[in-house]
Amino acid sequence: MKLWIFILNIVVSGALIQCSEVKNPINQTKMEHQENPYYSRTDTTKLQISNEEWKKILPEDLYAVAREADTERPFTGKYYTTDVVGEYYCAVCGQHLFRSSSKFASSCGWPSFFQAEKSAVKYKKDTSHGMVRIEVLCNRCDSHLGHVFNDGPEPTGVRFCMNSVSLDFEPDQK
Predict the structure, then answer these.
(1) What is the pTM for the complete model shown?
(2) Element (H, E) at 124
(3) Model confidence at 50: pLDDT above 80
């Protein structure tokens, strides 16, 4: 009997420790940007920061996607299945990019939107990996966000296929 109680205590303690380590990606934004003096949700000034400077400031995974146009693996991003109402921002500079009302389930493996905030993004022809695509960049800091395709839902018919790591999310206040 004592052995069973001992084993049960170990199992419950382990479960409690694991649960306490689970992080909510929606509430991590403020802590992640303490080391980034260029991050602002109110300043819209165009940034001219070198990649050497960004490399000192940004987490490795964000730098790889945002500054080197890497792509996170499909179906792994923290916002792929998020359906909470709120706003999406550039994870590098804080520029407002999307409203959750334009997000839709595309089954492509990345968060998808049918409309971006006016003047928040810019586009560039991308011929990497033997394909011709349209790259989407943040208009404030020139960071890679993802790509846009002409296979989205109405009313726009486009699909902004974004990397979760390039996005921050702020849920609406209740």
Answers:
(1) 0.81
(2) strand 121-126
(3) yes
